[in-house]
Design brief:
335 residues, alpha+beta, Arc Repressor Mutant, subunit A, five-stranded mixed sheet, two-stranded antiparallel sheet, 16 helices, 7 strands, 50% helix, globular, Tscrpt_reg_AraC-type_HTH, transcription cis-regulatory region binding, AraC-type_N, DNA-binding, transcription
Length: 335
C-alpha cells in the first residue's frame, strides 16, 4: 500500500451537525461543503476520513464564527486560538505553555474553566464547562482535551504521554475512539474532565517557532484528527508493517513476526495481551484504505478492490458491508 490512511467515527460529524442545527445553521450546506451527505449521518456505525471531519469542523467554525463548534455556553470567535498560539510559541518550556494556556482561556473564554497544577510526580490539567447542557454528546469536552494535549505536544516536538484521562460523563458507545485519541488509562463518570502526565515533561523546551506555526495553523483542525502513534507497542509495529506493505492481501503474520524477530505464536500472544489480533488489525487497515480510496472519484470500485487485494469487486463489496454496514457504491454515492 505504501501509505497511511485511517478513519474516524461518524459520531463526531453527527454531533457537529446536531449542534449546528440547534444554532439554526444551514446543515445541508455544511455537509455539502465538507463532502458529506445527510444519509451518511443515519449510519452511526460508519467511518469517515479525518479530512472530511476537518472540513466539516472548518465549515461550522466559519458559519457560526465560533471555535467552540456551537457547543459552548458562549461562542469563542474565530482567531482566538491562533492569537493564543502566537503567544505560546514564545514560551521556553512546556511548564509555561500550560500555565499560559489556562490563564489565557480563563481570561477570554466564559464557556469553560481550565486549571493546571502539579502534585507529587504528576502534572494535571482539568477542564470544566460552564454549562454541560450545551454539550449533550460530550463532543466539546473531547475536542478541548484533544486540543489541549496535541498542540502542546507539537510545540515541544514530542508526544506528551498521558498517565490518566478522566471524563465527567458515562462511558459512551464510541469509547473505542478514545483509545486512538488519548494515550494512557481512561476513566469515566469522574467528577471532572482532566489528563495527567509526568511532571518531568514540564522542563521540555518549546522547539517550534513563529515560522513553523504559520504552516501548522493552516492545517487545523486536521492535525488534531489524524491518528497519532498511541497504540501499544506490538499493535503499532503490526500496523506500521501493514500500512507499508506493497501487497497487503498476501501479507501474513509470519512476515510481520520475522520482521519483529519473534515467532508468529509469540506475536499472536503479544497482540492478544494488547486486546487485538492480527486479522482485526489487517481488516482495520483495509477498511480505512477503502474509505480513503472511495473519497477519490477517479478510482473505480474495481480498481479499489484490486488495490486492496480482493480477487473480484463482489468480494470487496461483501467485506466493506461487513466493516461499515453499507456497500461501497452506496457509501460513495452518499459521501
Amino acid at each position: 500500500m505504501k501509505n497511511e490512511q485511517h478513519s474516524v467515527s461518524i459520531h463526531f460529524a453527527i454531533t457537529l451537525i446536531a449542534a449546528a442545527e440547534r444554532k439554526g445553521l444551514d446543515t445541508r450546506q455544511l455537509l455539502h461543503n465538507a463532502g458529506l451527505n445527510e444519509q451518511l449521518l443515519k449510519q452511526p456505525g460508519l467511518r469517515i476520513t479525518p479530512e472530511q471531519l476537518s472540513r466539516l469542523t472548518q465549515e461550522v467554525w466559519k458559519a457560526a464564527d465560533d471555535e467552540l463548534i456551537c457547543m459552548g455556553s458562549r461562542p469563542s470567535r474565530q482567531g482566538v486560538f491562533a492569537l493564543m498560539a502566537k503567544h505560546l510559541v514564545h514560551c521556553r518550556k512546556l511548564r509555561s505553555v500550560y500555565h499560559r494556556f489556562a490563564q489565557y482561556y480563563n481570561l477570554i473564554a466564559d464557556a469553560f474553566e481550565l486549571n493546571f497544577s502539579v502534585d507529587g510526580e504528576l502534572a494535571t490539567l482539568t477542564l470544566k464547562l460552564t454549562d454541560v447542557d450545551n454539550d449533550p454528546d460530550h463532543t466539546l469536552r473531547e475536542f478541548l482535551l484533544l486540543l489541549l494535549h496535541r498542540f502542546p505536544s507539537w510545540l515541544i516536538g514530542q508526544r506528551i504521554t498521558l498517565e490518566r484521562v478522566t471524563f465527567d460523563f458515562p462511558k459512551p458507545a464510541h469509547s473505542e475512539e478514545h483509545r486512538l485519541m488519548f494515550p494512557g488509562r481512561v476513566d469515566y463518570d469522574q467528577p471532572i474532565c482532566s489528563f495527567s502526565f509526568s511532571k518531568k515533561l514540564l522542563d521540555e523546551p518549546v522547539v517550534q517557532t513563529t515560522s513553523t506555526l504559520g504552516g501548522y495553523l493552516r492545517t487545523l483542525p486536521l492535525e488534531w484528527f489524524k491518528r497519532q502513534a498511541y497504540y501499544p507497542v506490538y499493535t503499532r509495529r503490526v500496523l506500521n508493517y501493514l500500512e507499508q506493505a506493497s501487497d497487503l492481501a498476501q501479507t501474513g503474520i509470519e512476515q510481520v513476526a520475522e520482521e519483529a524477530h519473534m515467532t508468529s505464536r509469540n506475536l499472536r500472544r503479544k497482540l492478544s495481551s494488547e486486546g487485538t489480533s492480527f486479522q482485526e488489525l489487517k481488516d482495520s487497515v483495509r477498511r480505512d484504505a477503502a474509505i480513503h480510496y472511495l473519497s477519490q472519484p477517479t478510482l473505480t470500485i474495481a480498481q479499489i478492490a484490486r488495490e486492496l487485494g480482493f480477487s473480484e469487486p463482489t468480494a470487496f463489496t461483501r467485506a466493506f458491508k461487513q466493516w461499515t454496514g453499507v456497500s461501497p457504491s452506496l457509501y460513495r454515492q452518499e459521501s
